[in-house]
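quick one before i forget lol
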Amino acid sequence: MAIVKPFKALRPTKELAKTLSSRPYDVLSSDEARVLAKDNEHSLYHIIKPEIDFEPGTDEHDSKVYQKASENFAKFQNNGWLKQDKKENYYLYAQTMGTRTQYGIVVAAFVDDYLKGVIKKHELTRVDKEEDRMKHVRINNANIEPVFFAFPDNDVLLEIINNVSKREPEYDFISEEGFGHTFWIIDEEEEIKTITDAFSAIPSLYIADGHHRTAAAALVGAEKAKNNPNHNGDEEYNFFMAVCFPASQLKIMDYNRVVKDLNSLTTEQFIERLKENFDVVNKGSEIYHPESLHNFSVYIDNNWYSITAKPGSYNDSDPIGVLDVTISSDHILKDILGIQNLRTSKRIDFVGGLRGLEELKRRVDSGEMMIALALYPVTMKQLMDIADTGNIMPPKTTWFEPKLRSGLVIHKLY
C-alpha cells in the first residue's frame, strides 16, 4: 500500500510564480534555457540548468556547475523569492491543455515504496543520468523538481480534488507554451488525513514521467539513511516529492520516429519489404494519422502510407510484444532498416507527439531524414499492465503533455 505524507513546501511568492517556474530540466537544451532565462534573475533555470551562468559550451556535469546550483538555490531563499510553508500541507496542481484539465495531488512519497516496488516503473534508467540528478539532489539537499505519478482512480481522492478545485487558487497563470497552471494549498487537517488514508488503500503508484528523477530522489534518500548513525525513519529524506494524477485523467501522446536512410534500399524495395508483415495503403500527399492500435503511418518520398500489422506478426498474449512500438521496432526498424539498438543508433531520432505529424513531414522534406514513422499512442491501461507484470517498455514509448512545471513547489530533505 502506498505511503505518502504532507510536507512544508518551499514555494515562490504569488507574484513570482510564473516568472520563476520553468519547464523540466531535460526537455530543453542549455542554449534554449539560456535564452529563456535572459534578463530574468528569478528563473529556476539558474538552479536546474546552472550551466547557463557560465560561458556557452561549459560542461553541465562540471563540479563548479553543481556548486553554482547550490549557490543560486541559497540566493533564491535568502532574497525571499522562495519561502517555506510553516506547516505540512498537501497541494493540488492542475494543468490545462486545450479543453483538457488534469489534477494532481502533490505529496511526499516514501523512498522505501520505490525500493520495494510499490512505486512501479515501466522504463529502464541509465546510471549516468541517475548520477547527474543524484548530485543535484545531494548538493541542494532538496527535490527541486517533482516527478509525475499516476494512481488508479479513487473515489475519495477524486472528491477531494473536486472540492479543492472549487476554491480560490494560490497560483493561476498560462505559461509560455500556452498551458494553464493552477495551484491550491490543502491545509485543512481533516482533508490532509483523508488524503493520507486514501493513498494507504491504493496498492501501487505508477511512474508516468521522470524515471531518472524518481530513481535519483529515492537513492539519495536511501543513501542518507545509510550514512546517518542516528537514523530513525522519521527524517524528511525518507520521502521525495511527487505529483499524483488519477490515471483516467492522463493522456499519453504518440512518440514518433524519423530515420536518416533506408539501409541501402530503394523506396520501392522498402515498401515491398513492408508488405511482408503489414497491409500497405498509399494515402497520397495528405498527412495520415494512425487510426487505431497496430495501424501506423509512414511518410516517404512525398507520400503517406497507412500500414496495418497483419495477424500473426505480433503476440496478443505478450504485454510487450503486442505494443505498437515493439511491432514497429521488430518488423521495420530492425528487420528492414537494420537499426538494432534504438538507444544508441545515430541513424534514428524521436519526435514527441506535441509537435504533430507536420514536424515529421518537415524533417523528411528538408532532406535531414529519409523516412518518418508515426505510431498510435500507448494507453494508460497498457502502461499500468506492463508495470504490474514487472516488464519494461521499449525506449521512447510514452510522451506525456503537459509537462509538470518546475519551481511551483520544492521539497527540502531536512
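fyi The CA atoms of residues 40 and 201 lie 44 Å apart.
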